[in-house]
Amino acid sequence: QLKRGDQITAGLASANMDPAANPRPEELDLARKPNRHVAFGTGIHFCLGHQLARLEAKCALQALYTRWPRLALAVAPEAIHWLRRPGMRSIISLPVMPSGNAAVSAAHSAADTSHRAEVATS
Length: 122
Description:
Layout: H1 12-15, H2 50-67, E1 72-73, E2 82-85, E3 88-91, E4 96-97, H3 102-111
Antiparallel strand pairs: 1-4, 2-3
């Protein structure tokens, strides 16, 4: 039980994965409404640069997929290696193929259709 004055650490990676707050939390959706993502803080601690960060992400992803519209994972999603630290989760490397990967896509679709190629944002 928490007592007054106890220090806590908020796990943003898990907080943003709550399916009760975000349907399909594993998918990157920059236009999600409502967007209850907590990484930019709340109240007086809300990040003033949040709109710029979202715009930069949107522009970068649009440029990436304009240049390589068939961009796909070069490995099965299960083969992606994650770096996990308290309060942070990131991908160590993300092998992709600009022309798509029919072999990985077909094998993965046959095994499990619940995963999608995604871009990590946290």
